[in-house]
Design brief:
mainly alpha; single chain; 4 helices; about 0% strand; about 80% helix; globular; about 70 residues
Length: about 70
């Protein structure tokens, strides 16, 4: 899991630079990072990144969309 987290940490800023901070791909990248943090038991960090991901994804898809619910 540490390697997966390192990759996710590198991917998030690359995606944000390429698509912008409010793009759905940025939201999905943050969600992936949060999931890895969750699996490591780092709940505060995971919660922060999940919240950011949900905020981005809700803007684009609405709160009832499957992407947001998962």
């Amino acid at each position: 899991l540490p390697e997966a987290e390192a990759m996710a940490h590198r991917a998030v800023p690359v995606i944000v630079r390429a698509y912008g901070p409010d793009h759905p791909r940025a939201g999905r990248a943050r969600s992936c990072l949060a999931y890895v943090q969750l699996m490591q038991g780092r709940l505060a960090e995971a919660e922060h990144n999940f919240a950011g991901a949900v905020e981005i994804l809700e803007k684009h898809h609405g709160p009832q969309h499957l992407t947001v619910a998962v």
